[in-house]
Design brief:
The protein is α/β, with parallel strands linked by helices. 39% of the residues lie in helices and 16% in strands. The chain folds into 2 domains: 4-49 and 311-418, Aspartate Aminotransferase, domain 1, CATH 3.90.1150; 54-308, 3-Layer(aba) Sandwich (Aspartate Aminotransferase, domain 2), CATH 3.40.640. The two termini are 26 Å apart. 45% of the residues are buried. Bound molecules: ligand 7TS.
Length: 420
């Protein structure tokens, strides 16, 4: 499939937003790489962390470290309070019904595996169907394939057009009495496409089918309201939204979480254990076996504080400006093709350059201090749709600047010169 002709975009006006102020919050951005100013454009892989988050985690280890939910001593109670406060902040941030619906996990990948293993094992039988899309990250494909291999279910894939948009009408016709789940990415990490998930959730619900949304790339680039979306599950990672690695959340509607068996067994997920019988703990702890990433949870709470402290709406408008500006500037480069030209896009631009391998683009840009990602971005099926083995990908965060886009463009011209 070839990508659609690329049309000119009109730039939105920038709202007042002091990006330099924001940059000051992120210590790593002051670094030089090989003598060059760091230009960090790999935010879709992981974002950088503000001092507020780093300090909260340092303080936790320096002054509060203790295991949670089990001690009566001061430090244990303190760390339990901070950890549980983080859950409360996340519950408010995504507007879930209650804190019981916020399950701490390692990240998006674990959240999806939890649903596939627990909900899937309990509810899927041979011949059932799961609907996913052609633009899924591997972490929203492979967990369902594991269920397919175990249970004999079938995966149905919503196709995409040459701009990288889902065919919603085809999706609507994919439902039948065997459809048991829809698992759909909110924003594609390769194409940047923002999928019309609210509409697609409502279509699934009309067919009586629950929906899991992979929100890994959506949570950093939009306001998420799980009640308004009416999704049944929503998965995301802290590290892509300026928080720490190794922690994320599975949001699930209470009615589903209550009906699902535990995903892992161990400490903290039980009320009582004997060799004959174990009584499981209440939500959310039923799904949180063992000592969790406590410092990560504390850092996640601080991340939400940080987002609440800044003018997040203006930050998102700034990102939108960067995306439009970068799209216009990149399209001026002869031989450059943008992969993913959907009408509704977030801060990701994948591109290829005629006759130059993306890894070579990444290496030359690295010499200039510019960090982008190259490769298949853990989404090989979408690469196949566009008939490319790999792309170069620049992805923006709230601290990136117009000047950094200009540096990227100059860097790509240098790549062309080197390989020209
Ligand atoms: N889903 C999407 C849409 C993603 O972009 C990613 C990570 C994941 C799931 C998995 O998240 P994790 O936190 O559990 O690893 N995406 C990328 C990326 O684009 N480059 O590196 C990781």
């Amino acid at each position: 499939m070839k990508s659609a002709p690329q049309q000119k975009l009109s730039l939105p006006s920038i709202k007042t937003f002091d990006v330099e102020n924001i940059r000051d919050d992120f210590p790593i951005l002051k670094q030089k790489i090989g003598g060059k100013k760091l230009v960090y454009l790999d935010n879709a892989a992981t974002s950088q962390k503000p001092k507020l988050v780093i300090d909260a985690m340092n303080r936790y280890y320096t002054e509060e470290n203790s295991n949670i939910h089990r001690g009566v001593h001061y430090l244990s109670e303190l760390s339990t309070q901070t950890y549980e406060a983080a859950r409360g902040k996340i519950h408010k941030h995504i507007n879930s019904n209650s804190e019981k619906e916020i399950i701490f996990v390692r990240g998006t990948t674990e959240a999806i595996n939890l649903v596939a293993q627990s909900y899937g094992r309990h509810n899927f039988t041979e011949g059932d169907e799961i609907i996913i899309s052609a633009m899924e990250h591997h972490s929203n494909i492979v967990p369902w394939q594991l269920q397919r291999d175990e249970k004999g279910i079938n995966l149905r894939v919503i196709p995409i057009n040459d701009k990288g948009e889902l065919f919603v009408d085809k999706y609507e016709n994919m439902f039948n009495s065997r459809t048991k789940m829809v698992a759909l990415v909110h924003i594609s990490n390769v194409l940047g496409t923002i999928n019309p998930v609210k509409e697609m959730i409502s279509i699934a619900h009309r067919n009586g089918v629950p929906v899991l949304i992979d929100g890994a790339q959506a949570v950093p680039h939009s306001r998420i309201d799980v009640t308004d979306l009416d999704c049944d599950f929503y998965a995301f990672s802290a590290h892509k939204m300026y928080g720490p690695t190794g922690v994320g959340v599975l949001y699930g509607k209470e009615k589903y979480l209550e009906s699902m068996p535990p995903y892992q067994g161990g400490g903290d997920m039980i009320k009582s254990v004997s060799f004959e019988r174990t009584i499981y703990n209440d939500l959310p702890h039923k799904f949180e076996a063992g000592t969790p990433n406590i410092a990560g949870g504390v850092g996640f709470g601080a991340t939400i504080d940080y987002i609440n402290q800044i003018d997040f709406e203006s930050a998102l408008a700034h990102e939108e400006f960067l995306l439009k500006y970068a799209t216009e500037e990149l399209l001026k480069i002869t031989g450059l093709r943008i992969i993913g030209t959907a009408k509704h896009k977030a801060s990701v631009i994948s591109f290829v350059l005629e006759n130059i391998h993306p890894h070579d683009i990444g290496t030359i840009l690295d010499d200039e201090g510019i960090a982008i990602r190259t490769g298949h971005h853990c989404a090989q099926p979408v690469m196949k749709c566009f008939e490319v083995p790999a792309t170069a990908r620049a992805s923006f965060g709230i601290y990136n600047t117009k000047e950094e886009v200009d540096t990227l463009v100059r860097g790509i011209h240098r790549v062309k010169k080197v390989f020209g």
